């Protein structure tokens, strides 16, 4: 079963951190809940998803008012950039400006510019119906159509698409669109809102927009807007609406294009597609509702008439953590269980299975063989369904704290996971630059099911290739098939009986240690670390992996004479205080550039350099330099980024690059000074940690970003 890990909240919190190099003390709690006056009390309870950003201008002012912000703004490069932007903006006669920018810079559009600034300053929200997940699913599948259609030709032994490829591709797209007819003919609602201080200015610009549309040339490319745009009072709002129909799309793209597209389809599909085009409706609305500028897209305007009525999203039980946050959040996100259910994560696999099924129907196979292979595809589909996470609502929010930013991502109604200690944290070195560690909750039954599905896919592909290949290509394929089939069985046996039982499900990616290349600054090492349950079984399994790899290389040598000298190098075993380390021959004669692996009773590691392998095999308590969020809970996963260490590692490379730039820049000392100031500002982010844990039936990811303003001379 898949789970949301710490990276789900980590990414959004990191984005906030990059905008907030320093933080003032947390906002003081108010007597009344200030969020009841925001769009969270406007968005309907049944929204599929919602995202709200609160007071962006106040956040920017907080940044600019900090010592770090003032120092950054005082740098010559930043001043020059601001001056250039001002000169560009003031140069009203610049012919190289794009037309929209030239139009926006005209003096009569100053109120519009002020409105745009107002819209981006206070509060921005976006919500949509759950049907947007179906549109996203359609988008994913449309991206896969061409790839899998080309894969179908390869399975037929065609390296290059035949003349019929375009028709097959059009048919695949048509099948896809007809399968999503409901979401295309009844588009779900999407609403974007901006809170403004000057409502009268917003209404004046709406009047101006209507006037501009009414004066469009009757013979221009946008003449269709004149008849499509209407002024309407919808609920409490004043809107301009534009309804786009399938007929309008045909007029915009041209009748010839539509005829060519329909002509490429099979005759029985054309009437259905013409009906789909005729039924299409999309209404774009722009207006002023209360103190918000609203932009909306939907198949109708019913949702605008209901805006602000009924139960609000803010009252849902899932948002209780947001309501009880110690400080007002700066951002809030929500997705419903229905949205999660529709947001399928198996679109690529589903499209692959559909294409394989089409190939089986067209392949020269006897009926019994075809039915057996199609049954195998159904088994694969069932296995994929088992791996999908249960649909459940999610809430994400973050707020400012005295030490930085606190962010939470809560995934409700999740199966309980056993709280076991992450012992792999003892094998990441003392002070890594970055690591992501966690424990998989896949059982042996899950692994067996995944390998069974993989075997089914291989058998289907094998049958298709054999049914369509001939001559020399068939002989080569049969040779490889004869050699590789028993090796694949040995790999599966070693995986199920030795490797997986030898591991305990823990895995970590860690950046730490040093890799030294003569003449260049040091770079951090990268390692993969596994938790070990049974070292003996794991060692036997890896030995079988290596033996199979050698036989694969031998088969390649036998088949292709140009690989006659291909060999897998032997690893050199050395004994250290941490355990036995196996190192392969160095690349370019550099000892730090040699792949090394090691195994101890509770951990296994693969990295560059024997000394780095020894470091990670040795049990060492972590020294993160910042508090680990929720460290007393049973953690499922942990992600940590030590920003000052990353900057310290990067600085020699900046200095190295500046050394080569010195002859070609006007003032290399000033450039170097400004780069170092920028690096000092980046060090204000002291560290970022993100942990996930089970809280009742909810999976919680808590991200903490610790920050400190620039220190002045004499401060500690």
Structural class: alpha+beta
Helix content range: 40-55%
Average pLDDT works out at 83
For the termini, the CA-CA separation is: 48 Å
Number of helices: 25
In terms of DSSP E residues, the strand content is 15-25%
Radius of gyration: 31 Å
Please characterize this protein's 3D structure.
Helices cover about 45% and strands about 20% of the residues. With about 725 residues, the protein is α+β, with helices and mostly antiparallel strands. It has a 20-stranded antiparallel sheet, sandwiched between helices. A hairpin with a 2-residue loop joins strand 4 and strand 5. Helix 12 (about 245-255) crosses helix 13 (about 255-265), helix 20 (about 445-470) packs antiparallel against helix 21 and helix 24 runs antiparallel to helix 25. The protein is globular.
Describe what is shown at a glance.
The chain is an alpha+beta fold. The protein is built from 25 helices and 20 strands. Helix 7 runs antiparallel to helix 8 (about 165-180) and helix 24 packs antiparallel against helix 25 (about 670-680).
SSE arrangement:
Elements: H1 7-19, E1 49-54, H2 56-65, H3 67-73, H4 76-90, H5 99-104, H6 110-119, E2 123-128, H7 132-155, H8 165-179, H9 181-185, E3 190-195, H10 199-214, H11 224-228, E4 229-234, E5 237-245, H12 246-253, H13 255-263, H14 270-279, E6 281-289, E7 292-298, H15 302-305, H16 320-323, E8 331-335, H17 337-342, H18 347-362, H19 367-387, E9 394-401, E10 404-411, E11 434-439, H20 444-468, H21 471-502, E12 503-515, E13 523-532, H22 535-559, E14 572-575, E15 580-583, E16 595-600, E17 603-608, H23 610-617, E18 635-641, H24 643-661, H25 668-682, E19 685-695, E20 698-707
Antiparallel strand pairs: 1-2, 1-8, 2-3, 3-7, 4-5, 5-6, 6-7, 8-9, 9-10, 10-20, 11-12, 11-18, 12-13, 13-17, 14-15, 15-16, 16-17, 18-19, 19-20
């Amino acid at each position: 079963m898949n789970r949301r890990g710490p990276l789900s909240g980590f990414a959004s919190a990191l984005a906030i951190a990059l905008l907030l190099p320093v933080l003032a003390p947390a906002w003081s709690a108010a007597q009344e809940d200030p969020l009841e006056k925001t769009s969270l009390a406007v968005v309907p309870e049944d929204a599929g998803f919602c995202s709200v950003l609160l007071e962006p201008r106040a956040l920017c002012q907080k940044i600019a008012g900090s010592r770090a912000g003032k120092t950054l703004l005082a740098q010559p490069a930043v001043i020059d950039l601001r001056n250039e932007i001002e000169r560009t903006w003031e140069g009203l006669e610049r012919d190289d400006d794009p037309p929209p920018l030239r139009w926006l810079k005209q003096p009569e559009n100053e109120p519009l510019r002020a409105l745009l600034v107002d819209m981006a300053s206070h509060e921005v929200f976006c919500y949509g119906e759950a049907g947007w997940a179906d549109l996203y699913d359609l988008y994913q599948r449309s991206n896969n159509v061409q790839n899998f259609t080309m894969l179908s030709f390869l399975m037929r032994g065609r390296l290059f698409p035949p003349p019929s490829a375009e028709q097959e591709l059009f048919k695949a797209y048509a099948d896809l669109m007809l399968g999503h007819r409901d979401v295309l003919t009844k588009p779900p609602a999407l609403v974007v809102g901006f809170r403004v201080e000057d409502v009268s200015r917003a209404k004046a610009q709406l009047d101006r927009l209507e006037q501009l549309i009414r004066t469009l040339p009757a013979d221009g490319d946008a003449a269709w807007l004149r008849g499509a745009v209407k002024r309407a009072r919808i609920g409490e709002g004043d809107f301009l609406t534009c309804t786009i129909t399938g007929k309008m799309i045909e007029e915009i793209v041209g009748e010839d294009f539509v005829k060519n597209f329909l002509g490429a389809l099979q005759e029985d599909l054309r009437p259905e597609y013409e009906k789909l085009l005729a039924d299409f409706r999309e209404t774009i609305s722009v207006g002023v509702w209360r103190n918000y500028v609203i932009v909306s897209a939907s198949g109708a305007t019913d949702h605008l008439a209901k805006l602000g009525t009924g139960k609000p999203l803010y009252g849902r039980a899932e948002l209780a953590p947001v309501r009880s946050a110690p400080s007002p959040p700066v951002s809030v996100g929500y997705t419903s269980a229905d949205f999660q259910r529709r947001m399928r994560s198996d679109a690529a696999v589903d499209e692959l299975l559909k294409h394989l099924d089409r190939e089986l129907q067209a392949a020269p196979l006897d009926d019994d063989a075809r039915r057996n292979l199609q049954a195998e595809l159904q088994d694969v589909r069932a296995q994929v369904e088992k791996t999908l996470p249960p649909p459940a609502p999610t809430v994400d929010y973050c707020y400012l704290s005295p030490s930085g930013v606190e962010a939470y991502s809560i995934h409700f109604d999740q199966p309980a996971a056993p709280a076991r200690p992450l012992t792999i944290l003892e094998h990441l070195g003392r002070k890594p630059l970055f690591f992501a560690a966690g424990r998989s909750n896949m059982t042996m039954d899950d692994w067996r099911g995944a390998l069974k599905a993989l075997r089914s896919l291989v058998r289907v592909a094998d049958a298709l290739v054999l049914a369509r290949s001939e001559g020399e290509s068939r002989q080569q394929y049969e040779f490889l098939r004869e050699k590789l089939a028993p090796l694949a069985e040995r790999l599966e046996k070693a995986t199920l009986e030795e490797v997986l039982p030898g591991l305990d499900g823990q895995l970590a990616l860690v950046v730490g240690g040093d890799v030294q290349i003569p003449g260049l600054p040091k770079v951090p090492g990268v390692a993969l670390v596994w938790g070990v349950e049974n070292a003996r079984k794991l060692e036997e399994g890896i030995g079988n992996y290596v033996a199979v790899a050698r036989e694969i290389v031998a088969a390649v040598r036998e088949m292709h004479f140009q690989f006659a000298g291909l060999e897998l190098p032997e690893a050199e075993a050395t004994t250290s205080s941490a355990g036995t380390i196996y190192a392969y021959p160095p690349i370019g004669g550099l000892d730090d550039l040699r792949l090394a692996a090691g195994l101890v009773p509770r951990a296994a590691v693969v990295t560059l350099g024997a000394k780095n392998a020894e470091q990670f095999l040795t049990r060492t308590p972590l020294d993160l330099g910042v508090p680990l969020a929720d460290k007393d809970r049973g953690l499922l996963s942990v992600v940590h980024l030590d920003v000052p260490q990353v900057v310290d590692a990067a600085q020699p490379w900046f200095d190295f690059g500046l050394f080569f730039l010195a002859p070609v820049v006007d003032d290399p000392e000033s450039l170097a000074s400004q780069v170092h100031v920028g690096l000092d500002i980046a060090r204000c982010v002291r560290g970022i940690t993100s942990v996930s844990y089970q809280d009742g039936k909810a999976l919680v990811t808590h991200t903490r970003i610790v920050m400190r303003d620039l220190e002045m001379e004499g401060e500690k």
